[in-house]
Amino acid sequence: MRTPPNERVSSDIAETPRTRKADNASGSERRCILSGESHPRDTLVRLAISPEGQVLPDPGAKAPGRGAWIAPDRSALEAAIAEGHFKRALMRAFRGGPEGVTLSYSEDLPQQVEMALTRHFTDRLGLELRAGNLVLGSSRIEEQARQGRLGLLLHASDSSADGRKKLDQAWRVGAEIEGSGARGQVLPLDRDTLSVALGRENVVHLGVSGQPGDASAPHQKRAASRVAQAAARLTSFVSGLTASCDRPNGEAS
After folding, report:
1. Segment Disordered: which positions (predicted)?
2. Class of CATH domain 17-107
3. In the chain, helix, strand, coil percent, each to 5?
4. Exposure of 57 by Cβ count < 10 A (0-12 exposed, 13-18 middle, 19+ buried)?
5. Which ranges in 203-246 belong to alpha helices (H)?
6. What is the tens place of the pLDDT at every residue in 34-52?
7. For the chain, which residues make up each domain, given as ranges?
8. Which of 7, 48, 56, 188 has the fewest CB atoms nearer than 10 Å to its CB?
9. Minimal CA–CA distance to 153: which of 171, 137, 140?
10. Per-residue pLDDT reduced to its tens digit, 70-84
């Protein structure tokens, strides 16, 4: 699954340094334009305006200008578009937008959002792989898991139940929480998608390095958090349910 060619999204409405700093503040919240409910910004999906007035997904929340935020729920977005609620919500959110530009969006916006979230997640995996924070291969994952060296465990959608069960059990052993039922997250991506994204063959399972509470490796702990957040948002959008790993360290993902 790939995103369409990258489109630059921007707006004539410039952000002030203060606004940009506030947007990046840890724990800040944004309101979903469809439900009206506020959520942590990292759990929502930002929409931004291209120079031509097209509304496009901005999963990295980096495009300049005014943005609108929606909950990561594809079925809710599809229903809002079909019922006309989405268009009205956009008009309110972007009121006073770029002068002389008519806002528009594709009826295929839900698919665009899913593809953008997928690309955002797989790009994150690529960055963590280059940084040496990913563990690949069932045998190595099991070894690292039993030693308590994994901060996150993920499985492809077409991974076998037996394969997941074996690695989940090793993860619990390493975290010293046997009997808790904690397990890794099953992604909405199959092994072929993960293999292409990472440039490796047969990527069925993957772990993210990091020992819970290990102050000597804070970068690895942050890596697990970054991957978990991107994975949860993608899974939530596809399934319509809030997704998270059952983390052995008891931390929210």
Report:
1. 1-33
2. alpha beta
3. 40, 15, 45
4. buried
5. 218-239
6. 999 999 999 999 999 988 8
7. 17-107, 117-239
8. 7
9. 171
10. 999 999 999 999 999
- Exposed / middle / buried, residue 190 (Cβ in 10 Å: 0-12, 13-18, 19+): middle
pTM of the model: 0.82
Angle, helices 138-146/161-174, rounded to nearest 10 degrees: 30
Q: Which fold has domain 117-239?
A: 60s Ribosomal Protein L30; Chain: A; (3.30.1330)
SS3 39: strand
Q: Which two tokens stand for residue 166?
A: 């074996």
Residue 185 CA to residue 25 CA, distance in Å, equals 27
Rounded distance, CA 209 to CA 63, Å?
30
Provide φ and ψ at 168, rounded to 5°.
Answer: -60, -40
The DSSP bridge pattern shows strands 150-155 and 185-186 to be parallel
Q: Does residue 212 surpass a pLDDT of 60?
A: no
**pLDDT per residue as tens digits for the range 162-210:** 999 999 999 999 988 888 989 999 999 999 999 999 999 999 999 999 7
Residue 191 CA to its chain's centroid (Å)? 18
Could you check whether 17-107 and 117-239 share the same CATH topology? no
